[in-house]
Amino acid sequence: MSITPPNIILHAADVHKNFGGLRALSDIDLQVEEGKTHAIIGPNGAGKSTLLNVIIGRIPPSSGAVIFDGTVLTGKAPYEINQLGISRVFQTPEIFPDLPVLHNVMAPAFARRDGAFRVNMLRSVGSEHEIREEAEAILDDIGLHGRREHHAGSLSRGDKRRLELAMCLIQRPRLLLLDEPTAGMSRHDTNTTIELLRKIKSSGMTKVIIEHDMHVVFSLADRISVLAQGRIIASGLPQEIKEDPRVQEAYLGGGVE
């Protein structure tokens, strides 16, 4: 197994994943530098979501390991990985649809504070001023403060995605994984999300973003890795990726707009 350099907070080292006779990931060596935004791009079926699921423990690798800040994640349960400081925004938002938007954001903060969800977690919501203020500030940042009392299930798909991002941010993760965070959003909401992600970059939070929208990728990424047929075919600075003929051939149809 390859050695993780000291400035690398996340290392998917020699990762392979097979589903029966199908090889979904091969020879993955992904290194994410602490405090940076690392985008993963590639065509549909390239293995991007599979790789994220391996990282967060939803899918075990067939071989290899995932290392986060010196801790081997392989074999740990998803909740253990989350408690180490890794949060993920999913392609399909995972929210509490029957709870108000504000309570959706507060719930992960209670879990962060108490180590687990409590049966009576929401009974004393009104007295939890610090958590409420933090949740309201995050909702203000993402443009949902005016809907804080609405049931989360009534939100549009784009707003549900922004709500899930808020639920991740209140956990103050060291590493935030975003699986197509702007899918289903209007261009205005996409640009709002880009500005929010730029804003939180100054906090030192590391981000890994899977995204099809090249406007989002090139607006945010410090480094880009390109997956094709389960392999990383290129990794480098955004301008290097734009100019790489392998990337243009495999993913971008001959060029990057």
TrEMBL record:
GO molecular function list: ATP binding; ATP hydrolysis activity
Annotated SMART domains: AAA
Superkingdom, taxonomy of origin: Bacteria
One Gene Ontology CC term in the entry: plasma membrane
Keyword Transport: yes
InterPro entries, per database record: AAA+_ATPase, ABC_AA/LPS_Transport, ABC_transporter-like_ATP-bd, BCA_ABC_TP_C, P-loop_NTPase
Ranges of residues in domain ABC transporter: 10-254
Keywords on record: ATP-binding, Nucleotide-binding, Transport
Entry-linked PANTHER family: CONSERVED COMPONENT OF ABC TRANSPORTER FOR NATURAL AMINO ACIDS-RELATED
Protein name listed in UniProt: Amino acid/amide ABC transporter ATP-binding protein 1 (HAAT family)
